[in-house]
Protein: UDP-GlcNAc--UDP-phosphate GlcNAc-1-phosphate transferase
Amino acid sequence: MVYIALIILLVGTELVYFKIADKYNIIDKPNSRSSHTSITLRGGGIIFPIAISIAFFLGYVSWAVTLAVVMVAVVSFIDDIKPLSQLPRFVSHFIAVGLVFYELNLFSESLWMLPVVFVLLIGWVNAFNFMDGINGITVLYALTAIVSFSFLPLNEASLPLLITMGLSCVAFGFFNVRKKAKTFAGDVGSISMALFLGYFMIKTIIESGQFGFTLFFAVYGIDAVITIISRLLKKENIFQPHRSHLYQYLANEMGYSHILVAFIYAALQLIINILVIYMDARGCLTLLFMGGFLVLLTFMYLLVRNFVTRKMVLRNY
Structure:
């Protein structure tokens, strides 16, 4: 009954936000780099920090994690409305990561580990934010990760929190996983969700001692890293908006349905996650398996990307 009431509350909150966004013109206008063609309400992902705030009041999550997620969400929401300089965004991310470190007691670990984890977490947050480009892809991918974390026995105590965040994805997805989306997540949604998922990934690795669980983010991670390398080789500014991810090629240049592409990404990641969970249960989730599997996935990704880009070139002739 609690979760039924929660989903009703979350959907209602989203509907209230739509009225506010419409009144104050919080919209996303399409441009040459956009994957959409019509004006859409921005910031629907505000439901994610609202959900974790509800989880805090229900006693499902600590104040440190809640504050970290809400803080980056507030700064990102302001940035969604009126673009900010890099400084306030970086400061909010820096403090938020510090709160995550505090929650996970990482300050007691070796000093060399802190900058490594800091860079990886900041990189993940920004990669996840940049990947928010077509209808459904962010929320379906986030829901896949949350469901996967929920199936790990070591996360049993965190199930109420994971279910709450999963329900927020369902509520948002109802308005986003459509041919014509009612709303986009905006930075407020993608960055807050990225931080939450990053926190949960680090927590899971620490408690299990298994680096192999990073494969839960493999599809997004490989696409993001290869795209960044490709853009650097072309001497492009990697901090500028673009349409160079494989999923953008598939949806924009190849003409596949946004929803189909989003479901393919989520489904591929879910298959990988099921394999990872199975290998962990068998005691076979070794670093050798992780490394070899990443190489295989990267090779397969490059084959598909090369095939798609060649088809794009041929279509332009």
